[in-house]
Amino acid sequence: MAKRTSGSDGGRGDSPSQLIDARIEELGDWRGEMLARIRALVTQADPDVVEEWKWRGVPVWSHDGMVCTGETYKNAVKVTFAKGASLDDPAGLFNSSLGGNTRRAIDFHEGDTVDEKAFQALVHAAVALNTS
User: For residues 85 and 104, is the Cβ–Cβ distance under 8 A?
Assistant: First the structure.
C-alpha cells in the first residue's frame, strides 16, 4: 500500500495511514471495525491506492484521483465514491447521495454486512475510470 503525507494532520507529522489507524482505534466500536474492513477491501482491490487525510479528519483513498472516502458518523459509516454516478452498480450497493450528478455513497449501519465482491468491483471501476 502506498503511503503519502497529504492533508491536515494537526501539525503532528503523522502520516495519513497513521491517522486512519488512530481513527479506527479511537472509535472503538462497530464503526471502527467497519472502517477497518472498508480500508482492507479498498487496499486489497488496489494495492497502489494512496491513503490521504483531508478535511480535518476524513480518510480518503486515491489512485490518479479520488476513489472514495470513509466518513464516520454516530449511526453510519459513509463510503462516498467521488465519481460514483459514472460507475455501474449492478449489486445496488449505492444507497445514499443518489440525487447528485457526480458522487454516490454507501451508508453502512451497525449490523450491516459488506458484499465484498461487489464493493471491490466498485473500487476497480473507480480506479479504471480515474486512469482512463
Answer: yes
